Amino acid sequence: MDEFHEQRAHIREDFLQMEDANRVAQIQAAMVTQQTQKRMGELLLDLGGVWAQGDDQIGVEFTGGLEDTMPGIPEGLDVTYGRLGGTWISPKFSVTTTCTANHVEVMVSDGHWDSAANVHGNWATWTDQRRVYQGDIRMPVLRRRLQEAFLSWYKQAVSHGHTFLTKS
């Protein structure tokens, strides 16, 4: 084999090795993401159960889901309070999660609307969604932040639900 063919073979071999390394890195990243999703889903399952305990006015529904890879593991949850004739009377408390590798973003929607300034130029947009956590997965911090957000919503929901139920 002459020098030209050796260089061409070397370039191709380097490319294939690099492609294999990229494929391995992608597989490893997907596995880490899957583990993060599993840990977050287990936290949501636990919190949903804890939040519903002791108050029959609370309804919990798990959302999203990783049925293809991890059956029964949710990506979010919705909590409602105060049922009157089969209809929930308070705004939902919704948790959504986005996991990438070891990183998680947790958003909460709680029915408490705030102005999000400068979203569209100088105009404000109203939103009831806010980020309660973004960063590497740290379970004690995630649990505390979600519990704080839930209790803030619950205080309003109980007050709103009690007022509505006593006026009916």
Strand order of the largest sheet: 1-2-5-6-7
Question: What Rg is obtained from the alpha carbons, in whole angstroms?
Answer: 23 Å
What is the share of helical residues?
40-55%
Mean pLDDT: 83
What composes the largest sheet? 5 strands, antiparallel
- Count structural domains: 1
Continuous helix count: 2
Strand element count: 7
Classify the secondary structure makeup into a structural class.
alpha+beta
- Low-confidence blocks of residues: 164-168
Strand content: 25-35%
Give the H and E element order.
Answer: HEEEEEEEH
Spatial separation of the terminal alpha carbons: 92 Å
Shape: elongated
Short key terms for the protein model shown above:
elongated; 2 helices; five-stranded antiparallel sheet; 168 residues; 7 strands; disordered C terminus; two-stranded antiparallel sheet; alpha+beta
Model description:
This protein has 168 residues and is of the alpha+beta class. The chain has one domain (37-167). Helices cover 47% and strands 33% of the residues. The chain contains 2 helices and 7 strands; from the N terminus they run αβββββββα. The strands form 2 sheets. A 5-stranded antiparallel beta sheet has the order 1-2-5-6-7. Strands 3-4 form a two-stranded antiparallel ribbon. β3 and β4 form a beta hairpin. α1 crosses α2. The longest helix has 50 residues, at 3-52. The N and C termini lie far apart (92 Å).
